[in-house]
Design brief:
By secondary structure, the protein is an alpha/beta fold. It has helices at about 1-10, 45-50, 55-75, 100-110, 125-135, 165-180, and strands at about 20-25, 30-35, 40-45, 90-95, 115-125, 140-145. The protein has a single domain, classed as Rossmann fold. The protein is built from 6 helices and 6 strands; from the N terminus they run H-E-E-E-H-H-E-H-E-H-E-H. Strands 1-2-3 form a 3-stranded antiparallel beta sheet. It has a 3-stranded parallel beta sheet with strand order 4-5-6, with helices on one face. A hairpin with a 2-residue loop joins strand 2 and strand 3 (about 40-45). Helix 1 runs parallel beside helix 6, helix 3 crosses helix 6 and helix 4 (about 100-110) packs parallel to helix 5.
C-alpha cells in the first residue's frame, strides 16, 4: 500500500485496493502454493503434489484466507464501492514479486472487471515471477530484477507489516489529495 500510495500521489490518479491473499504451505506459510483475489483462485498443482499437501488442507487454507480477504475488503472500503475499471487502464502495484502468485491472482481478478489494460508495477522482482507476469499483464514495470533473489524484504531497509490502520489512513489521504487536485481524464 505505501508503494501504491506514492505512485498514485505522483501520478494524481485514484488509489484503490485489490485484496489478494497468499495460500501458504501449511508448515511454511511464507511459501505460496497459490493465491486468491476476488473470485480468482490460483493453485500450484505441481508444488502441492510434490509436497504431498492434501486437497482438504488446500481448501481449509483457502477458506481461511477468503475470510481474511473479505474482512480486509470490508474494513478498507468502509462501504464504498471499488473504482469502476471498465475501459480504464489499471496499474497494479505491490512491494515486490517473489513467486508472483498473489499478483497473478490480482491481475486475473482485475481482468474480470474489463479494464482497457493492466500494468503491473513493482520495485523489485524475481526473474521467474516477472517472466510469468509479462505473459499475464499488458505491461510490467520492475525497477530491479536481481540475479540472486531470495525474498522481497531483503531489498528494503524497513519491511515491517502494514497494518489495517495504515492502509485505511493511506486510502483516506489519497482520496483527500485527489479531491483537492482531481486527476486528468487521461490519467485515470
Amino acid at each position: 500500500m505505501p508503494v501504491g500510495f506514492s505512485v498514485a500521489e505522483r501520478l494524481h490518479i485514484p488509489l484503490d485496493i485489490i485484496v489478494a491473499r497468499k495460500l501458504g504451505v501449511p508448515w511454511q506459510p511464507e511459501l505460496a502454493m497459490g493465491a486468491i483475489a476476488g473470485k480468482t483462485r490460483i493453485i500450484d498443482d505441481r508444488m502441492i503434489r510434490e509436497l504431498g499437501i492434501s486437497a482438504e488442507d488446500v481448501d481449509e487454507i483457502a477458506t481461511r484466507e477468503q475470510s481474511e480477504m473479505q474482512r480486509r475488503e470490508d474494513l478498507y472500503r468502509g462501504g464504498k464501492p471499488p473504482i469502476d475499471l471498465h475501459g480504464k487502464t489499471a496499474i497494479v502495484i505491490d512491494d515486490g514479486l517473489a513467486t508472483g502468485s498473489t499478483m497473478m491472482a490480482a491481475v486475473r481478478h482485475i481482468r474480470s472487471l474489463h479494464p482497457a489494460g493492466v500494468i503491473v508495477a513493482v520495485p523489485v522482482g524475481s526473474k521467474e515471477a516477472c517472466r510469468h507476469l509479462r505473459q499475464e499483464a499488458d505491461d510490467l514495470v520492475c525497477l530491479a530484477i536481481p540475479e540472486r533473489f531470495c525474498a522481497v524484504g531483503e531489498w528494503y531497509r524497513d519491511f515491517r507489516q502494514v497494518g489495517d490502520t495504515e492502509v485505511c489512513t493511506l486510502l483516506h489521504e489519497s482520496h483527500l489529495q485527489l479531491s483537492k487536485h482531481p486527476a486528468s481524464p487521461a490519467a485515470v
